[in-house]
Design goal:
Length: 143
């Protein structure tokens, strides 16, 4: 059985290859990765899966990009919405450590905010994408 262990996260531009910045100091207990089916009722009173929604939520103790937390501000990157405005569309990628997998969202809008619930300043980033077959909502690679 494979384990999902991540070294860091990264925000990518909507081409999926150009990096906006890498985010270190992500917490495992603050990470959620789900794939939820959206169901519809068809004519014979049965349910079918119409599409799937993939969501990743990452909590980090770093407020800036880079391993040393010395890059530009994550929340001011233009790829993260902090106040309901429409950010530039991008992707959120989780880099798996050796033996684990990389997980990347499809193109989506990334939401973010400051959080103090653990007694310190943390950034919470949330990315949610939908797709009709589920494989493109959250792309899994590696291991």
């Amino acid at each position: 059985m494979a384990r999902l262990i991540f070294s860091h996260a990264e925000i990518l531009q909507n081409d999926g290859t150009t990096s906006v910045g890498e985010i270190y100091g992500i917490t495992v207990e603050g990470l959620e990765q789900t794939l939820t089916p959206e169901t519809v009722l068809v004519e014979d009173n049965r349910e079918v899966y119409e599409s799937f929604t993939g969501k990743i939520v990452v909590r980090t103790i770093n407020t800036n990009f880079g391993a040393a937390n010395d890059g530009s501000s994550i929340l001011a990157s233009g790829y993260v919405s902090t106040n309901g405005t429409l950010p530039t569309e991008g992707q959120l990628k989780l880099h798996g450590k050796a033996g684990s997998h990389d997980i990347t969202t499809a193109n989506t809008y990334i939401m973010g905010h400051n959080d103090f619930s653990n007694g310190r300043l943390e950034i919470v980033l949330s990315a949610q994408a939908s797709d009709v077959n589920g494989t493109a909502a959250l792309l899994v690679a590696g291991a």
